[in-house]
Amino acid sequence: MAEATARSDDSAGPLKNPIGRRYLSELNTFEIPQRLTDVLVIGSGIAGLVAAIVASRSGKVLVVTKGELDATATNMAQGGIAIANGPGDSSEEHARDTIRTGHGLSEEEVVRTICRGGVERQPDLEEWGVRFDRKGDGFDRHLEGGHSRARVLHVYGDQSGRYIQKALLDYVSSLSNVKLLPRHFVVDLISRRHGGGCIGALLMDEHKGKEIIWARKTVLATGGAGQIFRETTNPVTASGDGLAMAFRAGAMLTDLEFVQFHPTTLYVAGAIRALISEAARGEGAILETKDGRRFMTDYDPAGELAPRDIVSRSIVSELKKTGDTCVYLDMTKLNIDVKQRFPQIAELCSMFAIDISRDRIPVRPSAHYFIGGIKTNLNGATSAPNLYAVGECACLGFHGTNRLASNSLLEGLVMGWRAGEAIGRELASDNGDFSSRAIEFRIIDAPKPPIILSDVENSLRALMWRAMGIERDGEVLHEALENIRFWRQYIERMEFDAPDGWRLQNMMLVARLMLVSALARTESRGVHYRTDFPEQDDANWKRHTEIIGVPEEKDEG
Question: Is there a single domain that holds both residue 149 and residue 171?
Fold first, then answer.
């Protein structure tokens, strides 16, 4: 498939922090605690933990997270994992559903490999302690939007992510070759000069200070970037840090304009934007306007089971017509015990005086899944040597332009495994010396004006919600890009000595790259909908956008 390159007209500035850009040198000694490991995994969701499990068979692994070990999108996942091993089903049929949902940008070899890999890897999940819900003599399979068959496996109903996360953490904790290091912010990756590859990372702990980790292989499993938007279902950790670090390390990023919005997230004053699982609509829940009118069948024959991009845009269309702030999900007429089937949703809604067996749930779309990301191959390798990416921060063309429900945990499982195996093979053949090195650095004499970081972050999130939301327009995208260019004149050039500042810099960099990508794609496709270019344009845009990372610091004067 042909490639298109989307480059901004101003080079991305490096993160400024107490050591500036990180390059290896034999000239200086840097007095920071250091340690060596064979594999550094940054992130502890399903993709990172599976990569750690498999790689640990060939070397020592250190898993680092900036928050608690279970502060992941995996832990929050209500939907299950799509695995096509039921009677009459097949990975090929699953692949066809995935490709159809991807609107022409799904890489078919990738899709078939991952769908087939889910069937192959399910026994591994069970070996690691995951207990899927059963029905009679087999698994309890469920239908979700975009799937032609019931193939989604759950764990304790709508608590799948929580129990998959727990099982994997318990298993990893038992492995002697894996060490877990929570509450350490990764300031940046350490790379050799001139594209020589990633060799570790600089960490920051609020109590112990900085630490350098030297690693033969580094795996980014940092999740998505939903926190860039005002309304999101993502955990607070999903601020695009992995994308920003990969870009600065010189890796290629792709399809950053594609962000999936979950159609049904709880919309109550004071409530977090918790998603109301796709599985509810799979069981027959319907979407209604405030006056009780069902509307989804007006937009798609599949109704509530249409792909997420269609359902989200349909809701937005109805809200424009009615002037309301939300629509309603009605589960009250389902022929099941909804509280038993959806205990997590029932518990959440009850906190806001909503009884899901009697009351409709107010919902509206929120940013949910980052489809684009760090470009990788089928082994998770990026364009930067020794750097891998898996899970939501990665992009290899599996989802195309619109993720099929419950395919995210599937991708994390399969690609975590494949990356771990590939790393194991490389470790076995790599006999070179890998001792600790010194770092060349400089302190940048940057201004430190008084600034309220939370105010800038809230402004950025509101801007991105308006410009990069479910509907986009070129003029608004340009205006947003100009705003960010102004902010970066002082934010990206400032010195910070704590994670809040570095996190904001990462968010601003990723937001800018997203806007550049969205402006470049002058068509509508999947979750990328341009009101000024409302048609899909296969003649010019049946291709991926790419942004090439900046591996070396540039003096921007």
Answer: yes
Give the model confidence (pLDDT) of 148-206 as tens digits.
999 999 998 888 999 999 999 999 999 999 999 999 999 999 988 766 789 999 999 98
Strand partners, 141: 153
Evaluate whether residue 441 is within a structural domain.
Answer: no
Same domain for 74 and 209? Answer: yes
Contact yes or no for 238/232 (Cβ under 8 A): yes
How far is Cα 259 from Cα 527, in angstroms, rounded to an integer? Answer: 6
Asked whether residue 160 falls in the same domain as residue 202, the answer is yes
Catalytic-labelled residue, pool 162, 192, 308, 530: 308
Q: Is residue 505 part of a domain?
A: yes
Cβ(130)–Cβ(155) under 8 Å? yes
The domain in which residue 322 lies consists of: 264-367
Q: Distance from CA of residue 131 to its chain's centroid?
A: 25
pLDDT (0 to 100) of residue 306: 87
d(CA 65, CA 241): 11
Interatomic CA distance for residues 253 and 243, integer angstroms: 8
Give the residue from 245, 274, 265, 230 showing the smallest Cα distance to 393: 245
Residue 211: closest CA among 41, 32, 435: 32
Active site residue 543: no
Model pLDDT, residue 83: 96
Question: For residue 83, which phi and psi values (nearest 5 degrees)?
Answer: -135, 120
Among 367, 399, 416, the domain-final residue is 367
Q: Which two tokens stand for residue 354?
A: 């909503």
Q: Is 463 domain-assigned?
A: yes
Residue 11 lies in a domain: no
H, E, C per residue of 476-499 = HHHHHHHHHHHHHHHHCCCCCCCH
**CA-wise closest residue to 491 among 516, 508, 468, 477:** 508
Q: Residue 517: give its domain's CATH number.
A: 1.20.58.100
Identify the pLDDT of residue 491. 86
* Beta bridge mates, 39: 61, 217
In the structure, how many helices (H) and strands (E) does the chain have?
15, 23
What stretches in the chain show pLDDT beneath 50? 1-29, 442-443, 552-557
Is 242 found in the same domain as 291?
A: no
Question: What would the DSSP string read from start to end of 402-424?
Answer: SPPTT-HHHHHHHHHHHHHHHHH
Cα-trace Rg, the chain: 23
Q: What's the confidence (pLDDT) of residue 264?
A: 92
- The count of structural domains within the chain is 3
DSSP 93-161: HHHHHHHHHTTT---HHHHHHHHHHHHHHHHHHHHTT----EETTEE-EE--TT-SS--EE-BTTB-HH
Report the alpha-carbon angle 500-502-507, nearest 5: 95
